[in-house]
Amino acid sequence: AYEEFKPTLWKHNIDLGCNDASQGITLSPVVDTDALNANIALLGLHLLCKHHPHSFPALSLTSEITRGALDARPPCRWEEHTHTVSLPVQNSALKVSTEQLSAGLASGDNEVTTNIHQQNRLSDEKTVNKEVPVQVVLDMGHNPAAMGALARRIAHKFQGRNVRVVYAMSRDKDVRTCLKNVLAVVPSSHVHFVQSKNFRAISREELCELFREETGEEMSDLVAPRADIQDTLRIVAQRLAEEGPDGVLVVCGTGYIMPQARAFVGIDEPRDELDLHRDGL
């Protein structure tokens, strides 16, 4: 269908799952759904220009407008943010070193020695806040294909990073297969369940039962079972920050938890809570 299509127009992305020798395209098997969707749209534009050249005579595949449209992303499709966690730490800058203390003692000056001891005592009592960035990814993938692509992208992009996943699903989806995709790339202890208020949501208790069946383990979570979504995100982000500077928090599984997740990362946007939660949605 695209024998005349120039491969140089493809959105080149190392994560793109595409292999077409006839077009000179041999890229990683890992699927970057952003690039994949952009290329599908680009191919559609190519076919439109080819078969209906008089319908859109001004349409150019290489124009800045077209490029900008292909780069546009809807919310919560591998949407990346940074959330900063403030951790209280001892103000070690006030602490006098052993060498300094030894020098003070060697001076024989009792006042100097007393001041050093007082400063050390104050440093033990005083704490300062350390700002630790946590990378946040919002992705509303909610079926096995989307969750499989998300899992491969997590494994590819965050190799060696400390990843925790906050996960919810709707009960009319293939929840078990989606959960298997998550557990394939994230330690079971790093998976945390929440439940949206929408009537379609699968309960946290049901997710815990599926987790038990798939892992043979009991769900041991950081948060209380009834904690709301934003509290859960705060607690998980806090744990990531405490564990080190390479933390990644992935929120996924359903669009019904994304308004709270976007608010958590500081996005102020209008939303109708009634429509999100009403039984007739």
TrEMBL record:
Domain Mur ligase C-terminal: start-end pairs: 130-254
MF (Gene Ontology): acid-amino acid ligase activity
Gene3D superfamilies, A to Z: Mur ligase, C-terminal domain
Domain of life (superkingdom): Eukaryota
The protein's name in its UniProt record: Mur ligase C-terminal domain-containing protein
Native organism: Spumella elongata
